[in-house]
From TrEMBL:
Coiled coil: none annotated. The keyword Transcription regulation does not apply. The gene is thiD. One of its GO terms (molecular function) is pyridoxal kinase activity. Its EC number is 2.7.1.35. It catalyses: pyridoxal + ATP = pyridoxal 5'-phosphate + ADP + H(+). One of its GO terms (cellular component) is cytosol. It comes from the Bacteria. This is pyridoxal kinase. Residues 13-248 form the Pyridoxamine kinase/Phosphomethylpyrimidine kinase domain. Belongs to the ThiD family. One of its GO terms (biological process) is thiamine biosynthetic process. InterPro entries: HMP/HMP-P_kinase_dom, PM/HMP-P_kinase-1, Ribokinase-like. Keywords: ATP-binding, Kinase, Magnesium, Metal-binding, Nucleotide-binding, Transferase.
Length: 254
């Protein structure tokens, strides 16, 4: 069988639980060859956990190095600033014939409103060019500029994001509404699907990255979008059950 290549545009998690480490582990578990263009570095400093964006010229060189690779899918993770996002968008536009999964990570949500507003506008530009977006509740609220307090609110926001150009949307609800169940909503412009899983006390660091890169993997393996989402939720749930103190572990015994 011909080797299939999948690209992640994602950050370097210093604790190796999420970001590019979760992406590559997920691709490997699905027997795909993973590539990474690094968008940022992270570290613990006196100010707490900080994100340091890759120099935009270096990021552009990374993407140029990969322009001739025959990718079967792309997963977009943490895009730390507008400059990086613009370069990523240009790259995605040149790969419109393959599945693209956008995990719209918004950093510094509480303290940098101007930066988040600019990045929000940039992320909205991706919507027409990606196969699916996978925001969590906070990201969905920021993107839609609506509050989410109920399952019905999740459905309203999913429709709003679809109306803004996203072809398929899955909002990760987590356990905000219940400590017993984690609830997600999928919407394809026609039908809402609600996915519900028990809440686990195990470490879920890297779960969002793993979820998005698993969807990309399943799309490469020719699953429908909803089936890719469903199988990825199953996969992440099992991975969390087998996690350690640093985050999700993909290579569990199945």
């Amino acid at each position: 069988m011909k080797t299939k290549y999948v690209l992640a545009l994602s950050g370097n998690d210093i604790f190796s639980g999420g970001g590019l480490y979760a992406d590559l582990a997920t691709y490997n578990t699905n027997h795909l060859h993973g590539f990474v263009a690094v968008t940022c570095l992270t570290a613990m400093t006196k100010n707490g956990f900080e994100v340091f964006a890759t120099d935009s010229q270096i990021f552009a060189h990374q993407l140029n190095s990969l322009k001739d690779v025959d990718f079967s899918a792309i997963k977009l993770g943490l895009l730390p600033n507008v400059e990086i996002a613009e370069l990523a968008l240009d790259f995605v536009k040149n790969h419109s014939d393959i599945p693209v999964v956008l995990d719209p990570v918004l950093v510094c949500k509480e303290s940098h409103d101007v930066e988040v507003s600019a990045l929000r506008e940039e992320l909205l530009k991706f919507f027409p060019y990606v196969t699916i977006i996978t925001p969590n509740l906070v990201e969905a609220e920021l993107l839609s500029q609506r509050n989410i307090k109920t399952l019905e609110d999740m459905k309203v926001v999913a429709k709003d994001l679809h109306d803004l150009g996203a072809k398929n949307v899955v909002i990760k609800g987590g356990n905000r509404f219940s400590q017993e169940a984690a609830v997600d909503v999928f919407y394809d412009g026609k039908v809402f699907q609600v996915l519900e899983y028990p809440v686990s006390e195990k470490n879920n660091v890297g779960a969002g990255c793993t979820f998005a890169s698993s969807i990309a993997s399943q799309l490469v393996l020719e699953k429908s979008v909803f089936q890719a989402v469903k199988e990825s939720k199953d996969f992440v749930y099992q991975a969390i059950l087998h996690s350690d103190q640093y985050g999700v572990k993909q290579n569990y015994d199945q």
